[in-house]
Amino acid sequence: MEEADGSEIAQNIYKDPIEISFEELTYFDDESLYRWLCPVCETGVLLMSREGTTFSLRNTDRCTYCGQAFTYLDECTEENILRVAVAKRHPALQKSSPKNNRLPRNH
Ligand SMILES: [Zn+2]
Predict the structure, then answer these.
(1) How far apart are the first and last CA of the chain?
(2) Over the stretch 27-76, which tens digit does the pLDDT of each residue have?
(3) 107 C-alpha to ligand 1 centroid (Å)
(4) DSSP per residue over 21-83, as a string?
(5) CA 68 to chain CA centroid, nearest Å
(6) Residues 22, 81: Cα–Cα separation, whole Å
(7) Which residues surround ligand 1, an ion (CB under 5 A)?
């Protein structure tokens, strides 16, 4: 299926994974520290999934739109995600303490 801009859903699904660091990524929205905008299609989102049993963050991801696979070069831990969010001045951090590990939400 082709979109108006010529991009195609799942067009990158068979391509090799791209190694990427959090420094190179942009947040998908202002609400979540765990969603990145796909740097390839700039449409889809990288959701940062977790292991089923340990709930630790996986260091591999896949764009919800173009299907491009990624391998994160950074440590995929809550602590590191939070450190990156502070460094990138994520708007959600303005609303609650960075010490709070839970996702900040609007009430
Ligand atoms: Zn994509």
Answers:
(1) 39
(2) 999 999 999 999 999 999 999 999 999 999 999 999 999 999 999 999 99
(3) 31
(4) -GGG-EESSSS-SS-EE-TTTSSSEE---B-TTT-PBPSEEE-TTT--EEEE-S--SHHHHHH
(5) 13
(6) 8
(7) 38, 40-41, 44, 63, 65-66, 68
